[in-house]
């Protein structure tokens, strides 16, 4: 008999097949394969000669035994990938193969508690050897002394039955680890929470018992209490900060009922609120507050609040809201008055160079905003364009998404709705299949798409031409009103015409785009949203281009013909009117497009359907309004405050209307990249165009002569140059500042280099993300290959067993034939 592997009796094999047995086999699959290959000679394993009775029992058992259970449940329909494993699933495995399967780590971890404790005992032992220096062995308790078994990654569970139990050994090892290593090790254990809590309590009790037995110095005890108090205070502070997040509960409600697509709109709106809060704080502290402390002398204007709130003119034209109110000299304010023979004089005063601070504040605001946008965009790229397969996310969401710390009924309901909606989106993404159309139908769809784009581009071009000619018409009307000396109220009312026309186009034309998209019949809701975003973006950019030509080309060229003394304040007023009209028409769209349409659909049409929230149009409206705010920072320092109040009102109005009048999309879809696209659109078309327009104004356009902090200068850039020259003339050691200002600030090459650096950073970050995505794809392919290797090894092991069984059967038959022949020969003899 060969002394290789001696397989046990069938009854013992059945006991080993249960992975729940704590004393079961816990050797890895690779170790078993190596043990089997050591005894292979060719393709046949030399087995211990079994008697005939055991062979028959084993053959009967092999004929009836198959893999049954959740992991090997028969399936009727298979995909191409599943058909590859059909041979594995459908096989009737032998007892030896089943023993190998039951002892694999993937089938043992999470089921066999004893195997887990054995494995993590070894890990804790290895961690102790790495983290701690070797003290004298007499300082260790007997159960915690290192053994040669600790050098193995996996050890046989039967080796721990000698002496103390495996559980006691693991607790002793956890006791000798640091607090952070102990917590990390307990988190990594695939045990239930009750078991982990019990192990933690045992380890902590032993640590406290050992500490109480030893004499701890008072200083060390006091230090321990301080560290514990600081950590508790830090975690309490983090919890308090998380509770202060703006609109956290409202966002959870929206995401739970309407999905991640609608949620991305409200998250983007909150982001814009933070941008405007930053703009308002910087301009308010550095420009508005110093000018309010030392107000200039202006003529009092009679106020008619009803019309002035809409037009932004009248009383507001001589206020802190616009550029023309700010002084062009150094502000000073006496802090202490002294009496002398010559009269009253200031001994100390507050001085503030308003032109210089105005120039550098606007530049710093745009520079910091650019950095924040680039950082947000790169971070969003890294989060949204990673490899997250829907099947893996679906499993994670099903098994590990519930937060068991939630106890309030409202929180439980919100979490249940949120998880349910995300599961619908993931299931829809998993089940989504690209439809294959015949060639003729494909050509027909391409023709329909081309026709739709021609209609959308043509309508956009017509609307842009209409805005341009109407703008020229209003420009000529302003000239005529200035010549005829008409009333101021008539002039202000006539200036509302252009904002009303532009806002009407922005309201009506997206509805036409939606009708065209309905004609195209897109299968994917995400593709439909991207197409709608691109068409609405084309409309907004074209209209803003015509308006920028009016504000920075026509108006500054000849402001006297319009009867305007300060063209910067005039442009600020128009931006205020456009921003206000955009808000009013957004409310009209909410009222007519959502509320009245719901009533009409339910009352007149007797249908239960409600309108679906239009993500593309609402997001582009936000980007349009934020572009106006960025353009108006130079001409109206308080315009970000107006935009901030508008966004706060818009969030609450849109949320209430969404809950009352809208329904979730009929086709669930996961908006995994929507936030990234919104930030990208906010950065490149919106912020970049606003920054270019403001830079062009400060570099090339001549400021007004009679108003503003830059009056009397050729360009706004001269304010910084005059200040640097004044410093150099008063102190020759600062002469190098002139060269720095000329080379860095006035030279456009520095601006282009800075923009190039930002673009290079974005490019490199995108390449890094792309490289990580490729590496993840390779690792996933390697994992799949490892699974194929396991299938191959299991099949190979089964083939070897079949060959061994055939050889054993042949030997039994030969033995029986020989015995019968011997009996026959003896009978005849």
Automatic annotation (TrEMBL):
Signal peptide: none
Domain TMC: 566-671
Keyword annotations from UniProtKB, A to Z: Membrane, Transmembrane, Transmembrane helix
Segments passing through the bilayer: 262-289, 357-377, 450-470, 496-516, 537-555, 575-597, 676-699, 749-766
Major localisation: membrane
GO CC terms, sorted: plasma membrane
Spans annotated as Disordered: 1-25, 808-829
GO molecular function: mechanosensitive monoatomic ion channel activity
Protein's cellular compartments: Membrane
Membrane topology: Multi-pass membrane protein
UniProt xrefs under PANTHER family: TRANSMEMBRANE CHANNEL-LIKE PROTEIN 6, TRANSMEMBRANE CHANNEL-RELATED
Family that this chain belongs to: Belongs to the TMC family.
Name of the molecule in the record: Transmembrane channel-like protein
Organism: Triplophysa tibetana
């Amino acid at each position: 008999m060969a002394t290789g592997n001696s397989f046990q009796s069938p009854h013992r094999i059945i006991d080993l097949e249960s992975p729940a047995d704590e004393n079961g086999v816990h050797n890895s699959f690779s170790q078993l394969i190596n043990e089997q290959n050591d005894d292979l000679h060719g393709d046949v394993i030399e087995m211990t000669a079994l008697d005939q009775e055991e062979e028959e029992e084993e053959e009967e058992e092999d004929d009836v035994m198959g893999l049954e259970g959740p992991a090997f449940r028969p399936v009727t329909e298979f995909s191409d990938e599943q058909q590859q494993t059909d041979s594995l699933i459908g096989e009737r495995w032998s007892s030896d193969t089943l023993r190998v399967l039951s002892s694999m780590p993937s089938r043992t971890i999470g089921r066999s508690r004893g195997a887990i404790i054995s494995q993590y005992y070894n890990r804790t032992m290895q961690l102790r050897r790495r983290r701690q220096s070797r003290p004298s062995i007499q300082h260790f308790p007997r159960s915690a002394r290192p053994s040669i078994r600790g050098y193995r990654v996996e050890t046989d569970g039967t080796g721990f039955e000698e002496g103390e139990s495996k559980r006691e050994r693991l607790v002793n090892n956890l006791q000798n680890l640091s607090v952070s290593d102990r917590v990390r090790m307990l988190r990594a254990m695939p045990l239930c929470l009750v078991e982990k809590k019990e192990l933690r309590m045992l380890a902590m009790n032993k640590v406290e018992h050992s500490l109480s037995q030893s004499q701890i110095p008072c200083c060390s005890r006091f230090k321990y209490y301080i560290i514990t108090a600081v950590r508790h205070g830090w975690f309490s502070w983090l919890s308090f900060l998380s509770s202060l997040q703006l609109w956290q509960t409202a966002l959870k409600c929206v995401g739970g009922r309407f999905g991640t697509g609608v949620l991305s709109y409200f998250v983007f709106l909150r982001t814009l609120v933070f941008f405007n809060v930053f703009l308002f704080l910087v301009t308010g502290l550095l420009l508005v507050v110093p000018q309010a402390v030392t107000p200039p002398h202006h003529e009092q204007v009679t106020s008619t609040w009803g019309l002035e709130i809409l037009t932004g003119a009248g009383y507001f034209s001589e206020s802190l809201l616009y550029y023309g109110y700010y002084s062009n000299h150094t502000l000073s304010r006496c802090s202490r008055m002294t009496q002398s023979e010559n009269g009253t004089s200031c001994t100390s005063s507050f001085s503030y160079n308003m032109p210089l601070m105005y120039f550098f504040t606007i530049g710093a605001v745009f520079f910091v905003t650019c950095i924040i946008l680039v950082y947000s965009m790169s971070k969003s790229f890294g989060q949204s364009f990673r490899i997250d397969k829907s099947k893996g996310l679906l499993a994670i969401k099903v098994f590990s998404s519930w937060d068991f710390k939630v106890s309030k009924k409202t929180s439980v309901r919100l979490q249940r709705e949120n998880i349910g909606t995300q599961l619908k989106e993931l299931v829809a993404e998993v089940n989504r299949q690209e439809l294959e159309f015949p060639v003729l139908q494909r050509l027909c769809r391409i023709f329909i798409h081309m026709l739709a784009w021609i209609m959308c581009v043509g309508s956009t071009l017509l609307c842009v031409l209409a805005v341009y000619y109407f703008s020229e018409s209003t420009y000529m009307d302003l000239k005529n009103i200035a010549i005829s000396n008409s009333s101021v109220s008539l002039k202000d009312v006539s200036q509302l015409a252009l904002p009303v026309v532009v806002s009407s186009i922005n309201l009506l034309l997206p509805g036409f785009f939606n009708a065209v998209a309905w004609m195209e019949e897109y299968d994917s809701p995400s593709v439909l949203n991207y197409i709608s975003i691109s068409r609405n973006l084309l409309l907004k950019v074209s209209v803003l281009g015509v308006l920028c030509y009016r504000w920075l080309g026509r108006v500054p060229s000849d402001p006297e013909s319009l009867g305007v003394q300060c063209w910067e304040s005039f442009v600020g007023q128009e931006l205020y009117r456009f921003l206000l009209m955009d808000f009013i028409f957004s409310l009209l769209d909410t009222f007519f497009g959502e509320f009245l349409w719901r009533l009409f659909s339910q009352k007149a049409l007797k249908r239960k359907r409600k309108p679906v929230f239009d993500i593309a149009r609402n997001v582009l409206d936000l980007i349009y309004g934020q572009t106006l705010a960025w353009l108006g920072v130079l001409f109206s320092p308080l315009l970000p405050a107006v935009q901030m109040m508008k966004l706060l009102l818009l969030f609450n109005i849109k949320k209430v209307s969404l809950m009352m009048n809208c329904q979730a999309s009929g086709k669930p879809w996961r908006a995994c990249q929507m936030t990234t696209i919104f930030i990208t659109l906010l950065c490149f078309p919106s912020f970049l165009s606003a920054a270019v327009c403001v830079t062009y104004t400060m570099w090339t356009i001549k400021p007004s002569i009679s108003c503003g902090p830059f009056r009397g200068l050729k360009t706004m850039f001269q304010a910084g140059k005059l200040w640097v020259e004044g410093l150099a003339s008063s102190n020759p050691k600062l002469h190098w500042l002139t060269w720095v200002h000329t080379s860095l600030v006035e030279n456009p090459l520095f601006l282009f280099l800075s923009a190039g650096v930002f673009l290079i950073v974005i490019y490199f970050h995108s390449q890094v993300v792309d490289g990580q995505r490729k590496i993840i794809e390779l690792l996933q392919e390697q994992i799949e290959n490892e699974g194929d290797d396991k299938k191959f090894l299991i099949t190979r092991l089964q083939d070897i067993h079949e060959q061994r069984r055939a050889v054993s059967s042949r030997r039994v038959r030969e033995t029986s034939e020989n015995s019968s022949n011997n009996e026959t020969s003896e009978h005849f003899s």
